[in-house]
Specification:
Layout (H helix, E strand, L loop, with lengths): L2 H26 L6 E6 L3 E7 L5 H12 L6 E2 L2 E3 L3 E4 L34 E4 L12 E4 L12 E7 L1 H4 L18 E2 L1 E4 L4
Antiparallel strand pairs: 1-2, 1-10, 2-8, 3-9, 4-5, 5-7, 6-7, 6-8
């Protein structure tokens, strides 16, 4: 192999390695606009990767409420062992939302189970019996629950800090209503804003 061919081969190989490295770095870097940081008790920091590819309307609502500080200090009012922790209701009753602040309910954005499933750490939007009644309440799964697949909107996935979600105070009875004082979502931010 002559010297020119050797140099060309070396440059091509180096370029390919740099391209692979840059792609890996880009994949490893979080999408700051679609990453939430949730602060819980005991200095708990939970990172949630948002899924606008699955639920663009719900992700936009979550980011808007987060940026307005409306999730800050809201209680986890319904927490069922082995199932999920539900929050995002400013009244703490399970009946509230931010309709009185001009946020209308959102239409369902259900994903087929072949695309997304309710697994441990999945974040879904709570709703009433009407599938198009989601407003601000959300839940984080403690365990996989196939019965929810395709029935509720998935808007995110916990990527770190699930151990802090596991420490949220549990509710009592079949409803999972949390007796006072309930644990609270101390603060939530979009990573791009920090």
């Amino acid at each position: 192999m002559n010297r020119r061919a050797l140099m060309t081969t070396t440059l091509i190989a180096a370029g390919a390695m740099m391209s692979e490295t840059n792609e890996a770095e880009a994949q490893a870097a979080p999408d700051r606009e679609n990453t939430l940081i949730m602060e819980l008790k005991d200095n708990g920091r939970v990172t949630i990767q948002l899924r606008p590819d699955l639920a663009p309307l719900h992700v936009e609502r979550i980011k808007t409420l987060t940026r307005q500080g409306l999730y800050d200090n809201t209680p986890f009012h319904r927490v069922i062992e082995g199932f999920m922790a539900q929050g995002g209701d400013p009244t703490g009753t399970g009946m509230g939302g931010f309709r009185d602040r001009g946020f209308a309910d959102i239409r369902a954005e259900f994903s087929p189970p072949s695309r997304a499933r309710f697994l441990r750490g999945t974040c879904g939007m709570a709703r009433a019996q009407d599938p198009n009644s989601a407003n601000s309440q959300f839940f984080i799964m403690f365990a996989p629950t196939p019965s929810l697949d395709g029935q509720y909107t998935i808007w995110g996935q916990v990527t770190s800090g699930m151990e802090f979600v596991d420490r949220i105070k549990r509710g009592v009875g079949g409803s999972g209503a949390v007796p006072a004082p309930a644990d609270r979502l101390i603060r939530m931010r979009v990573l791009a804003d920090t």
